[in-house]
Amino acid sequence: MSEPGEIRKLDEVVVNRIAAGEVIQRPANALKELLENSLDAKSTNIFVNLKNGGLKLLQIQDNGTGIRKEDLPIVCERFTTSKLSKFEDLTTISTFGFRGEALASISHVAHLTIVTKTSNNQCAFKAQYVDGQLKGPIKPCASNQGTQITVEDLFYNVPMRSKVLKSPTEEFVKIANVVGKYAIHNPSVGFVLKRQGETVSDIKTNANSSYVDNIRAIYGDSIAKEVFEIEHEDDILKFKMHGFITNVNYSTKKQVFILFINNRLVDSTALKKAVEQEYSIHLPSGGHPFVYLSLTLDPKNVDVNVHPTKHEVHFLHEDEIIESARKAVEAKLLGANRSRVFYTQAKLPSTSLNIEAEEALLQKLNTSDRKVRDNNLVRTDSAVQKLDKFFSSHCKDAEKEVPEKVIRRDIKLTSVLSMRREVCIECSLALRDIISDSIYVGLADIEEVLVQHNTTLYMLHLKTLKEELFYQFMLFDFGNFAAIKFKNPLSLSALIDIGLNDPDFDFDQIGRSKIEIKEDAVKRLCSKKEMLIDYFSIEINGDDLCTIPLLLENYVPDMSRLPSYLLHLVCDVNWKKEEPCFRGICRETARFYSYCNPNDDIEKYRWNVEHVLYPAIKKHLKPPKKLANDKSITNLIGLPTLYRVFERC
């Protein structure tokens, strides 16, 4: 047997280089640390000079308070800082650099030179460092107030790190990304980024400029014209949010998400995903927004010491704060949508207007001082042309059967109230606004509906929307359903037989014969008949099914799925606990009612969608946020974009 290896203490130089590699992963990390030190020093102008993407030369110069001559001998030693004196100070830290590792780490993987001057000194002082230690004497020199830090030959003693880094061009792009983000967040500070040997700066912002000016300077005029300010404060969670986000007219293939928490540039996958979710409702597939957000939290609630590069932070009530921020973005986008002005399209000549509408329309047209372009027209009435015009025939009005009036009961079951509350909490206001204010365009496919909201065309996946609609009907009309009555009661045993022989029904009942399953199914349904008739209007008399609930007037589900529906009720519903039982029955009933038979009369189905189903969806559906993620609601294109495409043809 082999002997265990001897455990030895690593040499301090090796330990420091390992630690440095964790903190300084690439030139952009080093620059981020140095930028934060300059901002902590109250600089109003910061100049960054690069060579070979920062690998050969990375120099930053500021006009801040500088470093005292007395502190220069230890400034590059690990865990030396002016920000902390005891561990408890971490709970209230509000500055950028706080662990005293940045300069120390850089000095272990590069040649580091510091030139600094404070307001109390007659001259500046220059010092050089190797592996955290001062190399040679501190020399007086000439320089302006502030600090200049020069980093040369980064990773010269860690060859494997330099080999795995990107090309100098790509490293420069990452550095420019960092500088640009800090410039946007600090409009009172002037930033310059320049590559050595170049006469023109790659980034240049002026001190005391505006947020929008810096967004324009960094990301261009096309984004700057489309951003608007967002502000939000939550007294309960004790946080504030400020930022600039693009409106729903703008989208780009590459997302720009800039997040600062307590003035520190960080990442938050959860917040980023939440904001993306809100925009996905409005933007076309593959489109992304520009988002800059700055969150201010109570320092006591933030753990800033969880990642070597400090690009991640943890904080208390993270989920609640993200949800509050998401709702603020949602409300802002919704308000921006509603505040936009659109021109409306007059009805076709053959359609008469009432007097009030005609006068309002004439007044609007007469006061307009410019021609309304076609790409700004908004569908405003169901009488305007729809896709149905291009089909050969139309369905006539369906016969309406008005159910007997049901005396509503006030259901106070905790389980039902909880499920109703869940629907309300999960409802997306933005999706609700789109659907409730949309105009039906036509049926693109058997389960795909085109609608127009303002000047944007959306594709809606009808089956998902129908299932959600009928599920919500089941919850909010719980115990108050009218009934669809069968002229001749249907045998439960025969229905279950049909369901068991349906090749589409997938059931996992290992070790049981179909006869046993059928007998148990009939027995289960009959044993629950009092509850089924009382809450769900499912009447069972003897071994016969007499009624099922009427969820929507003039709508009858596909009865060919009734056997499968009954089997799912028996096999897939948890009948032992109240809330899972009610939830399961509601879900299975919603799936049954939302099924679309592809063999049905397409003309009748099209009429049903336009005149029965979609009006109910518009009026009653509380769309959950998940519909934006699963692409049940897809932004196809905006009319201005569509017209630009045709103009090029």
From TrEMBL:
<dbReference type="InterPro" id="IPR014721">
    <property type="entry name" value="Ribsml_uS5_D2-typ_fold_subgr"/>
</dbReference>
<feature type="domain" description="DNA mismatch repair protein S5">
    <location>
        <begin position="215"/>
        <end position="334"/>
    </location>
</feature>
<dbReference type="Pfam" id="PF16413">
    <property type="entry name" value="Mlh1_C"/>
</dbReference>
<dbReference type="InterPro" id="IPR032189">
    <property type="entry name" value="Mlh1_C"/>
</dbReference>
<dbReference type="InterPro" id="IPR036890">
    <property type="entry name" value="HATPase_C_sf"/>
</dbReference>
<dbReference type="InterPro" id="IPR002099">
    <property type="entry name" value="MutL/Mlh/PMS"/>
</dbReference>
<comment type="similarity">
    <text>Belongs to the DNA mismatch repair MutL/HexB family.</text>
</comment>
<dbReference type="InterPro" id="IPR038973">
    <property type="entry name" value="MutL/Mlh/Pms-like"/>
</dbReference>
<dbReference type="InterPro" id="IPR014762">
    <property type="entry name" value="DNA_mismatch_repair_CS"/>
</dbReference>
<dbReference type="Pfam" id="PF13589">
    <property type="entry name" value="HATPase_c_3"/>
</dbReference>
<keyword id="KW-0227">DNA damage</keyword>
<protein>
    <submittedName>
        <fullName>DNA mismatch repair protein mlh1</fullName>
    </submittedName>
</protein>
<dbReference type="Pfam" id="PF01119">
    <property type="entry name" value="DNA_mis_repair"/>
</dbReference>
<keyword id="KW-0539">Nucleus</keyword>
<keyword id="KW-0234">DNA repair</keyword>
<dbReference type="InterPro" id="IPR013507">
    <property type="entry name" value="DNA_mismatch_S5_2-like"/>
</dbReference>
<dbReference type="InterPro" id="IPR020568">
    <property type="entry name" value="Ribosomal_Su5_D2-typ_SF"/>
</dbReference>
